[in-house]
Amino acid sequence: MKFHVVDQVLLRHIKRGVHPGYLLSHQRHLFARRTLGGHAGNAHFQGETSFADILRSERLTLALDLMVPFAHWITPEPMPKRFDTHFFLVTAPVSQLGAHDGAESVEGLWIAPQQALAEAEAGRRTLVFATRMNLAKLARYRTVAEAVAATRAKPVVTVVPRVKRTPEGRWLQIPAEADYGVTEVFVGDGSTFGVTAMRT
User: Fold this and answer.
1) Domain segments of the chain: what residues?
2) Over the stretch 78-105, which tens digit does the pLDDT of each residue have?
3) Mapping DSSP to helix (H, G, I), strand (E, B) and coil, where does residue 140 land?
4) If 35 and its partner were Cys, which of 88, 99, 144, 164 is the partner (CB 3.0–4.6 Å)?
5) What Cα–Cα distance (Å) separates residue 150 from each residue in 13, 94, 140, 143?
6) Which CATH architecture has domain 2-24+63-160?
């Protein structure tokens, strides 16, 4: 079974560096300061109303012009549950606030990619393989503007990791054209999208 997913990575510049977080819409031509929470959000997730109805009732216009295609990942074929996920970068104002529906999203924070990766390496944060690789790519950039400009200049290459089994354990192979700086990642005997143990 394959699920189609859109994941946006909101960026804002705090002091120094790129800090990804999460949300996204215009309200009267301004970045919306409220989220689809409360009754409207609950009604949508319970199937009582459509997303389009919420946009009309809240007088919101999706900020599609701010969304920059960043990555496209599809779970390897051997997996029983697969995700076809498009990642987008979005520049958010420093004052942007977010909220969670408590079901689809339960936590959010502004964090530098380097910090998130370091915490995962130390075992304090869990990152699936695609997220880990995307954060590593995002960590190359010093500012939000630099990240967005570089991303706009490059085509998105779809990544469907291939599983290679060896006596040492499993490796995930990804295309060099996707520009992650590696073509193979060792995951040992863990989950196909588990913690990275070694890169080549």
Assistant:
1) 2-24+63-160
2) 778 888 999 998 887 777 666 666 666 6
3) coil
4) 99
5) 16, 21, 10, 11
6) Alpha-Beta Complex (3.90)
